[in-house]
Amino acid sequence: MSCLSPSQLQKFQEDGFLVLEGFFSADECAVMQQRIGKLVADMDVPVHCRIEFSTREEEQLRTKGDKDYFLSSGDKIRYFFEKDVFDEKGNFLVPPEKSINKIGHALHAYDPVFRSVTHSPKVQALAKSLGFQMPVVVQSMYIFKQPLFGGEVVPHQDSTFLHTEPLGRLLGLWIALENATLENGCLWFIPGSHTGGVSRRLVRTGDGSKPDVGFLGSEPVWDASLFVPTPARRGDLVLIHGEVVHKSEKNLSDRSRHAYTFHLMESLGTVWSSENWLQPSAELPFPPLYT
């Protein structure tokens, strides 16, 4: 069922996250995985653009590679890699298809398979049942969580990186394309943590000719005992409030944990921060979900 029941809506409003079981079929998941396999097989990333992606603050601020490659990726399809997969010259130490961390940030706009999924009638119906009036798609990512070394995602709030005024206008939709388990790095949430505002923000700095980023505020030390694991089976969709605190652990298993995720923003009465790292462009304004 694409629309939320009253009890599901209440649960989401209370916890800040919700698992919708079997939202996508096995066949729909297979189509997305097959398409991403083709993109990975065809990828050609110049050495100076081979960025090791990390969610740790100190590593984000000293990212190896051309930082513009990341900052200008909002209207492109670009490739980001795990830590320690390159030698000092930027050559792959492991096969490229096993080294990739994620592909982002405009799959929803430029790839026909992911555009179809993002704008599917059941996603539209789900957004309407959540009360969205004029939702737009802000960004999209395919996340690999590679076997044995897929990196952790430290505790964070999505609105740290995608800030809106007022808050509460951002929604993440996270689709499990493979089973997400305790062993391979499922999501963990602090229920109810979406009600306390945002503790820090990633903002653009510099004079505009060579954009860079920095953090405003600081991330609290979250009590580990507050997190609850949220396993998901292939085809499940996880709704993620923009301010809910969540994380995932390093993948220590021999199985990957593929997921497709994208973010919606209610555009009616909302200001997208001009300081956000991701900005709409003339080539790609944020596309409306309802077409």
Automatic annotation (TrEMBL):
<protein>
    <recommendedName>
        <fullName>Phytanoyl-CoA dioxygenase domain-containing protein 1</fullName>
    </recommendedName>
</protein>
<dbReference type="GO" id="GO:0051213">
    <property type="term" value="F:dioxygenase activity"/>
</dbReference>
<dbReference type="InterPro" id="IPR008775">
    <property type="entry name" value="Phytyl_CoA_dOase-like"/>
</dbReference>
<comment type="similarity">
    <text>Belongs to the PhyH family. PHYHD1 subfamily.</text>
</comment>
<keyword id="KW-0479">Metal-binding</keyword>
<dbReference type="Pfam" id="PF05721">
    <property type="entry name" value="PhyH"/>
</dbReference>
<keyword id="KW-0408">Iron</keyword>
<keyword id="KW-0560">Oxidoreductase</keyword>
<keyword id="KW-0223">Dioxygenase</keyword>
<comment type="function">
    <text>2-oxoglutarate(2OG)-dependent dioxygenase that catalyzes the conversion of 2-oxoglutarate to succinate and CO(2) in an iron-dependent manner. However, does not couple 2OG turnover to the hydroxylation of acyl-coenzyme A derivatives, implying that it is not directly involved in phytanoyl coenzyme-A metabolism. Does not show detectable activity towards fatty acid CoA thioesters.</text>
</comment>
<dbReference type="GO" id="GO:0046872">
    <property type="term" value="F:metal ion binding"/>
</dbReference>
